[in-house]
Specification:
This protein is an alpha+beta fold. The chain has one domain. It is built from four helices and three strands, in the order H-E-H-H-E-E-H.
Length: about 70
């Protein structure tokens, strides 16, 4: 059973939601969000749940996250 990545993924998603980085206008840097570029974060990008605006700012694709739950 793989629980740790799921917990880390949920933590990253919660950071985006709490910060309001849920669309391209409100995208934020990883520093602003207080997260780092971990394998779990990179997987969220690959899965389309986190979108890179310009390689520095990111936002949560809330529709993709909702379908995942």
């Amino acid at each position: 059973m793989v629980v740790v990545p799921a917990i880390l993924r949920r933590g990253i998603i919660n950071r985006f939601i709490e910060a309001g980085a849920v669309d391209s206008i409100r995208g934020m840097t990883l520093q602003q969000l207080g997260i780092s570029e971990t394998p779990v974060f990179l997987r969220l990008i690959k899965d389309g749940k986190v979108i890179s605006i310009d390689g520095f700012r990111y936002y949560l694709n809330i529709d993709k996250v909702r379908t995942f739950r």
